[in-house]
Amino acid sequence: MSLIELEHVAKSWGDTTALHAVNLRIEPGSFCVLLGPSGCGKSTTLRMIAGLDVPTSGAVRIDGRDVTHLRPAERCIAMVFQNYALFPHLSVADNIQFGLQVRKLPKAECQRRLQQAAGLLGLEALLERRPGQLSGGQQQRVALGRALVAQAKVCLMDEPLSNLDAQLRQEMRAELRELQQRLGLTVVYVTHDQAEAMSMADQVVLLNKGRVEQSARPREIYARP
Ligand code: ADP
Ligand code: ADP
């Protein structure tokens, strides 16, 4: 069974229609990239999978259950944004653990997950720093760390690498993909960068004006005129 399923999902605000009857299936453990120009509906799709927005019609299901019927804690979804959404006044450790502390997880468990994520992401030596004392790539890892400690099944990423320079972006693509495979995470990743989509995806979903134009493996997606 697909882990994420969108069935005839449409979304409108007044006379602006962001999505028209989108059908989409995403397999567990896969890396799915939503690709398309600005305004085509990528972020709206992501927000609907996260349960942050409700479809005007149609349904979004995770593990067969309608997301709008799940409480946030049951959704097992983490989001990573392009601006990282880190708290500047908190240490790296507290930024990573923030969600766990809010959920009142026992201290020892928070600590265990923090150390594990820091190890995976190579952040062990930086835990006492503030975000402002980190490079862009390191800040990105902190944002990822926050998703990892939440032990989310699904990680939604909206242009997470777009603030990085070209060299670092290249490195982070490989790093992110490696991590996703090692952890068996299901990732839905938004970008308007075709090269990025092709190099990372198991499944590329090409959106255009709120419709799915193609959904296929990267080598099966053909360049359009
Ligand atoms: P993308 O992420 O591909 O750039 P979006 O999903 O952000 O596209 O937006 C798709 C369309 O929906 C755009 O025309 C955008 O202006 C519109 N839109 C998105 N969110 C809202 C909103 N809250 N209210 C009104 N229109 C919106
Ligand atoms: P992105 O850069 O990811 O495409 P945007 O910057 O377009 O996202 O949108 C950021 C926020 O503003 C989102 O919450 C989106 O729903 C909202 N938004 C986007 N377009 C509009 C719009 N035309 N009217 C009202 N809200 C919008």
UniProtKB/TrEMBL annotation:
<keyword id="KW-1278">Translocase</keyword>
<keyword id="KW-0067">ATP-binding</keyword>
<feature type="domain" description="ABC transporter">
    <location>
        <begin position="4"/>
        <end position="225"/>
    </location>
</feature>
<keyword id="KW-0813">Transport</keyword>
<dbReference type="GO" id="GO:0005524">
    <property type="term" value="F:ATP binding"/>
</dbReference>
<protein>
    <submittedName>
        <fullName>ABC transporter ATP-binding protein</fullName>
    </submittedName>
</protein>
<keyword id="KW-1003">Cell membrane</keyword>
<keyword id="KW-0472">Membrane</keyword>
<keyword id="KW-0547">Nucleotide-binding</keyword>
